[in-house]
Amino acid sequence: GMSATMNGQSETLSGQDRPQTPAPGLGWEEFSRELVEFFASIKLAMFLFLFIAITATIGTVIQQGERPETYIQEYGENTYRWFLRLGFTDVYHTWWFTGLLGLLCVNSLTCFYKRFPGVWRSMKQDKVSVSLAFIKGMKQQAEVSVQGTKESVAQKLARYFIEKGYRVLAKNDAGEVTLYATKGVLGRVGAHMAHLSATVIIIGGLIGTYYGFQEFGVCLEGQTYHIPRGNFDLKVDKFWIDYHENGSVKSYNSTLTVVEGGEPKLTKTITVNDPLVYKGIWFYQSSYGDAWDQIEVARVNIKDKETDKVVKTIDLEWQKEQTLPDLNLKLSITDFVADFAFNSTEKKVYSKTIEHANPAVKLAVNERSTVQATPWIFYQFPDLFDIKDSKYQFELIGYKPRKYTGLQIAKNPGINIVWFGSTMIVVGITLSSFIYHRRLWTKIIPTGEGVTVYVGGTTHKSQIDFQKEFRKLTDKLRTFSV
């Protein structure tokens, strides 16, 4: 027994605990150790989380990826210039945000690199060959004298440990039996899993940012649109709005059909939270509104210039000519703008906003086959123009706009990686919160009549629970004497 204790003394000091001799000057060793310490530090993690949170707040408060005029209107030109300089109009793609995420990856990987090998080693190591001094030096330790042979006491003890859910390793030497019992190593692994998951989530996010895309499409009923990134077509079969009893909007819906190689592949009606997914591209219902460049029907008054009386009111369908033999007229609407504006250099009419602020339709008038005219007539200004040689005046008194459906089109190839990372975080944190790693060492050394049992143990957290457990164990040991 004596030699074991002596050996034990030297054993505990070897390896980790030997005082380090300071190297002269700041060597590469120290520098790299300091660097690892810095990158693994909690302070760095907190700092990064804080800045990522601030960035996310900026990205939420300031609309991302809008047209310049939107920002200038809301914040003024100077502020917009600063936004551009700092990248506030698209924070998630800026070099500094990517940098923050990169640092967070480095932080979580360094934490893993620093701590996990230790856990791995301690899982793999020969843990049964420990000295008596090692056991006596533990925070929780006790010494109990028991009747019986070392083998019989060891068997009883091992059975007790196994009952309590421990894994047990044993070693029987000439003068002693050593038992090692461990439980809950998953708690340690869980913490590291949570560390790694941050990196997994960020990698998924970055893949999504750089290889994915997000676009907004304005689509009209009955039209087919080519989706170049998916190499297929999307047909908008139908768009409609459901209303509540009180007239408020309940939901807006689009029925979409995917057409590939001329064949319809898939039809689905999408609503706000129920997208269509095809070939990894998601189509979300995101908005709706009145088209600014087309209408379904326009109601026009035809007035006799001389008498100023309305001779007829007709409804003209979009781009369909209507013949009125009694008035010797042919009429059609060829164009529409929601907010009339004229570009004098290009001599072009255009809609300056998408709001129906100053609506106008363009008429094609064919009268007695001699008068041909294409006037713009305005909803707000009925008497703005006069067709020379015509006996009529035309007034736009109402119209029915075409509804468009606004679709968010997105592809995010990193989404599954992000989900996997998020699952890892939840599993990791759950494991490390509810399972704590406990280790117990016992040496049973024969003395005169019976044996002396030396027992010591440690846990990586939840000390109070462990103290109770340890007390129970020593009480149980005393019952072995019988």
Structure, explained:
There is one protein chain. It is built from eleven helices and 21 strands. It has helices at 2-13, 28-40, 42-61, 68-75, 77-86, 95-124, 132-136, 150-163, 185-211, 415-434, 463-479, and strands at 140-146, 167-172, 177-183, 213-220, 224-227, 232-243, 249-260, 263-270, 276-278, 281-304, 310-317, 322-324, 329-337, 340-343, 348-351, 360-367, 371-373, 376-378, 392-411, 438-446, 451-459. The strands form five sheets. Strands 1-21-20-3-2 form a five-stranded antiparallel β-sheet. Strands 4, 9, 10, 11 and 19 form a five-stranded antiparallel β-sheet that branches. Strands 12, 13, 16, 17 and 18 form a five-stranded antiparallel β-sheet that branches. By secondary structure, it is an alpha+beta fold. Helix 3 (42-61) runs antiparallel to helix 6, helix 4 (68-75) packs across helix 5 and helix 6 packs antiparallel against helix 9 (185-211).
Structural class: alpha+beta
First CA to last CA: what distance?
25 Å
Shape: elongated
How many separate helices?
11
Find the count of extended strands (DSSP E, 2+ residues): 21
Main sheet: strands, sense, barrel:
5 strands, antiparallel
Q: What Rg is obtained from the alpha carbons, in whole angstroms?
A: 40 Å
What percent of the residues sit in helical stretches (DSSP H or I)? 25-40%
Strand content: 35-45%
Arrangement of strands in the largest sheet:
1-21-20-3-2
Query: pLDDT average, as an integer?
Result: 87
- Unreliable spans: 1-18
